[in-house]
C-alpha cells in the first residue's frame, strides 16, 4: 500500500490494491479516470486549460487539460483497461482569485477537461467542482472512490 501524491502538472496511474492517489487542488482540476472492474485508477493534476505559447515545455504530462486527459487515457489502456470500462470523476476548478484578469482559470480548466473526456467517450459520473475554496482529494485505486475534503473540513465520498 502506498500513498501517491499527484503533484501539479503531473499524472499517476496505479493498479495496486491499497494504493491511494492524493492531490491538493485549488483552480487546478483533479481528473480521475478509473476502471473499477480492473481495480485501476489514474489521476491528472491539470494546471492550465491550454498551452498558449507553442514553445512552452510539455515536460509535465498533466499540465494542460487536453494532453493530460489523452495521456491518462493512453496509460489506462496501456495497462489493460478497455475504453468501455472507463469512467471519470472531477474535483477542483475553484475560483481562487477574485481578480477578473485571471479569467477564471478553474472554470476554463473544467471546460477543457470535460471536452477532452467527451471526445474520448468517457462519462463523468461524479464531480465536486467550482466554488471559491481549495480541496484535498484522495482516491482508493481499487474502487475509484474519491474522498473530497474542502477547506472547511467538510468531507464527501463521490
At a glance:
By secondary structure, this protein is of the alpha+beta class.
Topology record:
Layout: E1 3-5, E2 11-14, E3 20-25, E4 29-35, E5 40-46, H1 65-78, E6 87-92, H2 105-119, E7 123-129, E8 135-140, E9 146-150, E10 155-157
Q: Based on DSSP secondary structure assignment, what is the total number of beta strands?
A: 10
Number of helices: 2
> How helical, in percent, are the residues?
10-25%
Order of helices and strands: EEEEEHEHEEEE
CATH class: Alpha Beta
User: Which structural class is indicated by helix and strand composition?
Assistant: alpha+beta
Spatial separation of the terminal alpha carbons: 21 Å
How does this structure look, described?
- The chain has a single domain (3-157), classed as 60s Ribosomal Protein L30, Chain: A (2-Layer Sandwich).
- The strands form 2 sheets. It has a 5-stranded mixed sheet with strand order 1-3-8-9-10, with no helix packed on it. It has a 5-stranded mixed sheet with strand order 2-5-4-6-7, with helices on one face.
- The chain contains 2 helices and 10 strands.
- Helix 1 (65-78) packs across helix 2.
- It has helices spanning 65-78, 105-119, and strands spanning 3-5, 11-14, 20-25, 29-35, 40-46, 87-92, 123-129, 135-140, 146-150, 155-157.
- The protein has 158 residues and is an alpha+beta fold.
- Helix content is 18%, strand content 34%.
